[in-house]
Amino acid sequence: MSEQRFAEQVAVVTGAGSGIGQAVARQLAVEGATVIGCDVDAEGLATTAKLVEEDGHTATMIVVDITAQADIDRIVAALPDQRVDLLANVAGVMDHFLPVTELDDATWDRVLAVNLTGPMRLCRAVLPLMIARGRGSIVNVSSIGGLTGAVAGSAYVSSKHGVVGLTRSIANLYAEDGIRANAVCPGGVQTNIGRSAAPKVPWAYQRLERSFGRVTRTATPAEVATLICWLGSDEAVNVNGAVVTSDGGWTS
């Protein structure tokens, strides 16, 4: 395995202000990538930039809201030589474990916009650039909530199932253009996504809790980042359309 797997490559990472996205940005920088980190959290991005510098590297941070097409355009405009080798769609939010009967339109729209529509728009934006170069990799962060309905509310589960479908569609349609697309499905991870995970409907959360007994451990962001970076690298050249769990055996 090469310690400089991303030398002379350009990588875009969303959700780079904290958690998994921050860990991915740091690892990619260490491995030689020109990193474009994106997040709505300016303070978080500043922290990531500082950590990358402490690692002995640099990265470009852009404060954006991936739910806004104008901000997607700003990301593309910031790409050096209009090139991107890896897109890591990491940004995501939870839905307070709301069941569909208690689900308000605002929560549904927000969760779908961040977790599914934003990643789709970024894929749509970078795919022509990848196709023009005949190579590129997309890694979308789904969740075990994209494989089962037993771990979150209706909006989150729907959005993460959608991410799996989006990934498989891209993998199928663009493989002949030299593009790979894979999805990672984490279980519990030590991130600040909990800010949108506070349960609001006790009976629904109590029913979902039954599945939590299978949790053996909570992963660190760096543990998930290693998988994302491997899938995005040339070492995974024969991996396309895969949906890979990183859940400590939760869904086994």
TrEMBL record:
PROSITE patterns: ADH_SHORT. It comes from the Bacteria. It holds the Pfam family adh_short. Belongs to the short-chain dehydrogenases/reductases (SDR) family. This is SDR family NAD(P)-dependent oxidoreductase. InterPro entries: NAD(P)-bd_dom_sf, Sc_DH/Rdtase_CS, SDR_DHRS6-like, SDR_fam. The keyword ATP-binding does not apply. Gene3D superfamilies: NAD(P)-binding Rossmann-like Domain. Transmembrane segments: none annotated. Keywords: Oxidoreductase.
